[in-house]
Amino acid sequence: MQKRQRELSALTLPTSAEGVSESHRARSVGIGRAHAKAILLGEHAVVYGAPALALPIPQLTVTASVGWSSEASDSAGGLSYTMTGTPSRALVTQASDGLHRLTAEFMARMGVTNAPHLDVILDGAIPHGRGLGSSAAGSRAIALALADLFGHELAEHTAYELVQTAENMAHGRASGVDAMTVGASRPLLFQQGRTERLAIGCDSLFIVADSGVPGSTKEAVEMLREGFTRSAGTQERFVGRATELTEAARQALADGRPEELGSQLTYYHELLHEARLSTDGIDALVEAALKAGSLGAKITGGGLGGCMIAQARPEQAREVTRQLHEAGAVQTWVVPLKGLDNHAQ
């Protein structure tokens, strides 16, 4: 915590906005925020039009600060990008590429021309490469910070499209579920760019466990697609099974049948495992969660590393969490459904 505070204090954002008209300048620093997400069911199949159930994780947040630079720069796109913590050079480069595209799209949409150099600082608690939507959350936070800086109100569909601009660079072909859920306050059903709130009839909670090993959504998506091309009918079977499990889970969640919901989670893990998207470490965490009494458990996100998610009754949470750490989890987060209740109004 002290290290992060030192980093932020050393990165004081400049306040010069020389060259930007009053109509395009609202304040000296813009702030934007977003949060993490987890996929309950629907990973990968959602790219092919199947539904996905997504869960916001409000306790894992990211904050973006954007301000006018006091120094001229020749960098592409007219901005400098800093991530706090110790991100890898590859991660910063990838994020920076998406940010330049997002910023250019924002400027074009808002009619901003000849803007001076910008400094962007991204500070967050969402671990990277874990399937928790860190790239989408960072992009959304930056889009909102840009809007705040220039005094614009971003419509939700505009924010979504801006995030997708960066996500498509990061992942090759982003379904949009991350872009939508990192700004959502309640669990969602996502399908082909459309969302609806999930009805919740269960008083369960979800425990997300970090394996400590980064995954690669882009690599996983490409690997799965290549597998589909090698064997006729494989894609249809995968998407069909995924759709069946996701719909069964949605109905169980709405009807208040937690055991049935948990079963669908575990079945979906088996589907992803068969597609070689899981790892020995993730499988060990899934097994530990089930032995500890979880109603269901599965990998969450793109795969090839990252996180798993387990469903448990409130009274089981401590034991499940303990055994997950014993099985190798480096950190865990508990997301209670009760606080995200969204029965239809």
> What is the top-level CATH class of the largest domain?
Alpha Beta
Q: Report how far apart the termini are.
A: 40 Å
- Determine the mean pLDDT: 87
What ranges have pLDDT less than 50 throughout 5 or more consecutive residues? 3-19
Fold and architecture overview:
With 345 residues, this protein is of the alpha+beta class. It is built from 10 helices and 10 strands. The protein folds into 2 domains: 2-191, Ribosomal Protein S5, domain 2 (2-Layer Sandwich), CATH 3.30.230; 199-340, Alpha-Beta Plaits. Strands 1, 2, 3, 4, 5 and 6 form a 6-stranded mixed sheet that branches. α9 (280-291) runs antiparallel to α10 (317-326). The longest helix has 22 residues, at 89-110. The protein is globular, with a radius of gyration of 21 Å. It starts with a helix and ends in a 9-residue tail after the last strand.
What's a quick, concise take on this entry?
By secondary structure, the protein is α+β, with helices and mostly antiparallel strands. It has helices spanning 2-10, 89-110, 134-150, 156-171, 177-181, 217-230, 234-255, 258-274, 280-291, 317-326, and strands at residues 29-41, 52-68, 79-83, 118-124, 188-191, 194-197, 205-210, 296-300, 307-312, 331-336.
What keyword list fits this structure?
345 residues, alpha+beta, Ribosomal Protein S5, domain 2, Alpha-Beta Plaits, 2 domains, six-stranded mixed sheet, 10 helices, 42% helix, globular
